[in-house]
C-alpha cells in the first residue's frame, strides 16, 4: 500500500468513526428530537409527549401478528387509470416505489394471540393511503376471506380519504366495503378497527367507523375534512381548539371506543376477539 492509499484508508476510518449510526427524528407533535435507535426500541413513540410516530406496514405485522403466521393475499391487485387522469400513472409508480406495494393497503391472513384474523394495513406512503378502486377490491376480497375462513377482521386505518384521481370509482368503494361489512356482521364475525394517524375523508366516513370496536392510537388525527379545510371554510382567521380532531378529544365525544398504546395493541385485540367470539380459553382474561 503506497502513502496515498494509506492516507485514504485512514481518512475513511476517521470518517466512519465520526458519523453516528443513528439519526435524530423530530416529533411532529412536540418537536422533541428522538434518537432513531431509541425510537425503534420504544415502538416509535416520542419519549417526551408519547405521540405515536408513523409505523410501517411490516412493523405492524411484527407488532401484532404471531411469529411466522402471516401470509399476504391478493398481492397483485393493482390500480388502473379509469379516467386517464393527468399524472395519475406517475403517482401510482411513485407510490409503488415508496411503499414497495401495488396498492395503498396490504392484506393477509394470520394469527393474533392465537386467534385467526384477516388483517388489512393501510399505507400512507402510497398516495397518502387513499381509497382507490383496487384498495376497495383488496378489502372486499379480505372480508370474503374472513367470512369463508370464519375468522375476525382487523383493519388498521391510515388514509387521506377517497382518491380524487378515480373520482366516483373511488367513492363507490365506500358503499361496496360497507355492504361487505354487513355480510361479515350477518355471518356473526367480529370486526375491529384500529384508527391511526391520520385517518380522514371517505375512509372515516365508511369502514374506519364501522368496527364493532374502534380503537385508536394516542394522538391520532381523526376526522372527515382536514383542519386546514375547516379553517378555510370558517374564514381565514378562525381558530380551532388545540385538541381538535385528536383521538383524545374524539374519544370523549364517543366517536371511538378506546385509545390503546401501540405496545398494548396485540394483547388488546386478542382479548377483544376472545370476548366477541366467546372464546375465552385463548386469552389471559379471568
Ligand atoms: Zn413528542
Tally of DSSP helical segments: 10
What gyration radius follows from the Cα positions, in whole Å? Answer: 21 Å
Tally of DSSP β-strands: 9
Helix percent band: 25-40%
- Which structural category do the helix and sheet elements fall into? alpha/beta
Give the helix/strand layout.
Elements: H1 3-18, E1 24-26, E2 33-35, H2 36-41, H3 57-64, E3 71-73, H4 88-99, E4 105-112, E5 115-122, H5 133-149, E6 152-159, H6 167-186, E7 191-199, H7 201-204, E8 213-216, H8 227-234, H9 247-252, E9 258-259, H10 265-276
Parallel strand pairs: 5-6, 6-7, 7-8, 8-9
Antiparallel strand pairs: 1-2, 3-4, 4-5
Helix pairs in contact: 5-6
Can you give a write-up of this model?
- Helix 5 runs parallel beside helix 6.
- This protein has 2 domains: 53 residues, no CATH class; 229 residues, 2-enoyl-CoA Hydratase, Chain A, domain 1.
- It has 286 residues and is an alpha/beta fold.
- The strands form 2 sheets. It has a 7-stranded mixed β-sheet, with helices on both faces.
- It has 10 helices and 9 strands.
- The structure holds zinc ion.
Amino acid at each position: 500500500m503506497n502513502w496515498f492509499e494509506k492516507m485514504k484508508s485512514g481518512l475513511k476510518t476517521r470518517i466512519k468513526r465520526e458519523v453516528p449510526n443513528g439519526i435524530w427524528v423530530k416529533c411532529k407533535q412536540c418537536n422533541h428530537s428522538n434518537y432513531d435507535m431509541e425510537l425503534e426500541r420504544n415502538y416509535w413513540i416520542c419519549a417526551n409527549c408519547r405521540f405515536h410516530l408513523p409505523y410501517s406496514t411490516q412493523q405492524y405485522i411484527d407488532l401484532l401478528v404471531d411469529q411466522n403466521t402471516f401470509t399476504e393475499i391478493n398481492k397483485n391487485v393493482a390500480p388502473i387509470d379509469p379516467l386517464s387522469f393527468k399524472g395519475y400513472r406517475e403517482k401510482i409508480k411513485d407510490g409503488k416505489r415508496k411503499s414497495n406495494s401495488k396498492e395503498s393497503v396490504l392484506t393477509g391472513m394470520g394469527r393474533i394471540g392465537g386467534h385467526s384474523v384477516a388483517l388489512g394495513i393501510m399505507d400512507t406512503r402510497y398516495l397518502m393511503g387513499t381509497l382507490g378502486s383496487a384498495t376497495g377490491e383488496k378489502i372486499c376480497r379480505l372480508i370474503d376471506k374472513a367470512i369463508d375462513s370464519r375468522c375476525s377482521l382487523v383493519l388498521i386505518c391510515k388514509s387521506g380519504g377517497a382518491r380524487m384521481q378515480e373520482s366516483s370509482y373511488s367513492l363507490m368503494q365506500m358503499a361496496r366495503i360497507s355492504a361487505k361489512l354487513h355480510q361479515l356482521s350477518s355471518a356473526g364475525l367480529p370486526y375491529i378497527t384500529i384508527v391511526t394517524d391520520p385517518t380522514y375523508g371517505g375512509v372515516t366516513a365508511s369502514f374506519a367507523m364501522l368496527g364493532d370496536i374502534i380503537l385508536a392510537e394516542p394522538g391520532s388525527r381523526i376526522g372527515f375534512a382536514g383542519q386546514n379545510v375547516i379553517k378555510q371554510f370558517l374564514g381565514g382567521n378562525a381558530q380551532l381548539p388545540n385538541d381538535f380532531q385528536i383521538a383524545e378529544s374524539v374519544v370523549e365525544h364517543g366517536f371511538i371506543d378506546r385509545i390503546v398504546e401501540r405496545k398494548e395493541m396485540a394483547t388488546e385485540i386478542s382479548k377483544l376477539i376472545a370476548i366477541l367470539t366467546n372464546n375465552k380459553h385463548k386469552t389471559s382474561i379471568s
